[in-house]
Structure formats: C-alpha cells, structure tokens
Amino acid sequence: MQDKTEGLKRISLRDVLFVIFSKLHVFLGIYLTLVLTTAALAFLLPPVYEVSGHVLVKPFLEPHLKLQAPLATNIRANPVTPQDINSEVNLLKSPQLLKTVVERLGLDRPEPASTWLGRLVKGVESGMKHLLVSLGLVVEVKPEDRAILELQNQLNIRPITLSNLIEISLKGPSPEKITKIVNTLLENYVDFHIQVYRVQGAKDFYAQQAEIFHRQLKETEADLKKFKNQYGVIDLTAQNEANVELLRTLRESLALTEAQIRERQLKVGVQSRNLARTGEPGALTKEVQSAILEELVRVLGPLLVERERLAIHYQKSSAKYRAVDRQVQEIKEAYQKQVRELLKGAQLDLEGLKNYADTIRGHIKKLEGQSLMLSQKQVDYERLLRDLKQNEKNYLLYLNKTEEARIEEQQEANRVSNVTVTTWAQVPSIPVFPKRFLMLLLAGSLGLLVALAGAFFAYYVDHTIKTPSDLGRYAGLPVFATIDLVERRTE
C-alpha cells in the first residue's frame, strides 16, 4: 500500500504530458472521433420539436347546488382530489379519444418518404413485415390500431405537482403536425369529458316522473276535496273531541235519568200495591201529594172526629150519624180518586222518563256510531293528507331534478365543464434536439477526459521500453549511462 502511494506521488504533470505525447495518436484519434461524431450528429440529424398544452381541473360543483350557483355567493365546491386528476389523465390517454384524433388527422395513412434513403428503408421494413406475417411470426395490425398505439406511446401526459394542471406534451420532427395533434386532442378532450360525465336521457326521465307525480298530486287533491265535501270535514280532531264531550254529558244524563226511573218505580210501585191491597194509599210520597189531597185530609180529620163523637151519642142508623158518615165516605172516595189520578200521572211521568232515557240512549248510540265513523274517516283523511304531502314532495323533487338536468344540458351545449384548456399548443421555432452548441461543448470537454483515459490505457498496456527507468524496472539491471538521440546533420 505504501509502494502504491509512493508511485502515485511520483506522477507529475511531466509524466502526464509524457504519456499524452507518447500516445498522441491514440489521444487525438479518440478526441477527434468523439468530437467529429457528435458534430455530425448535431448537424446531420433532423431536428426534433416539442409542444405542450395544459388542462386545468376545476373544483366540481354538486348537482343540487348548480341551481343556486348563479345566485349564491358563498357556495363551496368539492376540492379537486388526486383521484380526480388521475381520472382526467386516463381520459386523455383513452383509446376512444385517441381514435378520434387519428381519424380527424388521418394519422393512420402512411406518409411518403421525402428522400430515396427513406423510401428504401420503408420498402425494406414493408418487405420484412410481410415476410414475418406470412411466416406467422407476427400478427398483422390494422393501421388505425398501430397509429393509436404509437400516439399513445409518444404522448407524455402527466399532472403538474402541487397544482390542478395536467400537461400534455408531444415530440416530433414536424412542428406543425405535432401542434395540430396536441390541439386536436385538447379540443376533442373537452367534448369527450362532457360526454363521459353526461347522464343520458336524464331530463326526459325526470320530466316524465315529474308529470306522473303532478298527475297523482292533482288526483289526491281532488279526492281530498271530495272527501271533505262528502263528510263535511272541517277538523276531524275537533269534531271527535266535541263528540266525546257530548257523549260524556249524555251518559251522565242517562245515568241520572235511570236513577230517577228506579226511584220512581220503587215508590209508585209501593203506593200502587197498597192501594190495590187495602184500598188505602198508605203513607203518601211526594210523587202523589197535591194541594187537593192536603185539603181533603184537612177536611176529613174533623169529620172523622165528629163521626166518632156521634157514634157515642147516637145510633149508626141515625140521620146525623149517616149524614156525617156519608160525608166521610164521599171525602174518602174523592181522596182515593185523586190518589189514583196522581198515581196515573206519576206512571205517565215514569213513562216519560223512560222515553227520555230511550231517547238519550239513541243519541248515545248514534254518537258512538258517528265517533267510530269519524275515527275511520280520520284514518282515511290522514292517509289522503299523507299521500298528498308525499306526492307533492316527489313532484317538487323531480321538478328540481328536471331543472338541474336542463341546466346540465345547457352547460354541455355551451361546453361548460369542470375542465378547461388553459394553454394551447403553439408551433415551436426552436428544436429541443439536437442542441448543437451544448452537444459540441460536452463533446469537447468529455472528449478530453475520454481521450486522456484512452491514452493512459494504451500507455499502460504497451510493454515496450520507452525510458531508462523502464529498462531498470523490467530487466532488473542498473543503468549507468544513456545516449541521447542525435539527429543526423546533412551538409
């Protein structure tokens, strides 16, 4: 390791120059070959041009917000995601879009060669291709498919970092042709994008659905109006509450009337049985009391006392006793007659109470039936209201959808979408290859290094003795003296 380091330290500029001059023919050969080859390529190769265009992917607005877009000022759209950018890149590379470009520009038609060399090369290629196809080694490809594949391989479509832009670039020898290809691609891309995102037949479908629900809405409104007119419905809930309150009142009245009927039946029955069994009404109740009876009782009392007094002093066959007894009998008969009439009136009142109770029961039954009918009609009425609201909701929904679809179609007709071509391709005047000055500069600098390396390599693989030190190193003998080369003089 130390010997190698010492050997490296002994290499000087003189040694480098010695190697170069000893292998000058190698150094110059390599250098001139590289420089001349690069110069030939720089000046003889056809120029290659590059064009590019840019597409901006804008934030996507939701369909339900598009109706508000012309009026609202604070609507926020969905941000553009990397998935959206990649989707648009794939659309730009899609064979359907490239097929349109190929058909419009006729890229599938072969171009005639401009030179005899080009024609010769194309003839050889065509012959080789037919030979390989006839041998079954390759499959014959349609010119259109080949043009699409070549265009797909030549196009460089990539998203620009930290932006919503997509760059489309293309290289080729003809600046006009590649410019036309890129611009045609961009023009058809916007239409293709709109066609891909378009919902086919959406407007007609939504309009038909809106018409169906509008018709159902009108039918439901007519049914509801007919229902109200038929049953006199103003507010079924209020009517049900009124019926319930009236039923409660009638049931209370019926209970009170039935209690009165039972009480009167009991009292009148007792009076009637006493009167039928003994001929005496017994204890008078308030139902069979009157002013006449009170007057008869008041008159009968003294007569009975008088008759008892006369029975003590006179015979019952005496005229005075018989006269008093006759008055007593007449008053009793009048009393019983009055009691019978009062009992008959009480019976009529009892029948009236029964009839009243029956009337109340009829009203209660009628109200119960009406309440049941109202409950059923309440269900039908709520169903009609529910159908009305649902049909109205569906009609408004599809009406808004129809308007959204109409706006979509109008935007498509005006070629409005969330992608915009920001930069169209311009015909370039400066080729991207070959860059002659740069190529010559690199060939001159790199040629020196390669030529120097070649000279060193040729020097070290050459084992001929060039210096006295080489003789001592290779032969192992000491060198005592050297004789310089003396040029021969001619006189």
From TrEMBL:
Signal peptide: none annotated. It is a multi-pass membrane protein. The chain crosses the membrane at residues 16-45, 437-461. Residues 383-457 form the Tyrosine-protein kinase G-rich domain. GO terms for cellular component: plasma membrane. Keywords: Cell membrane, Membrane, Transmembrane, Transmembrane helix. GO terms for molecular function: protein tyrosine kinase activity. Residues 10-104 form the Polysaccharide chain length determinant N-terminal domain. This is Uncharacterized protein. It comes from Desulfobacca acetoxidans.
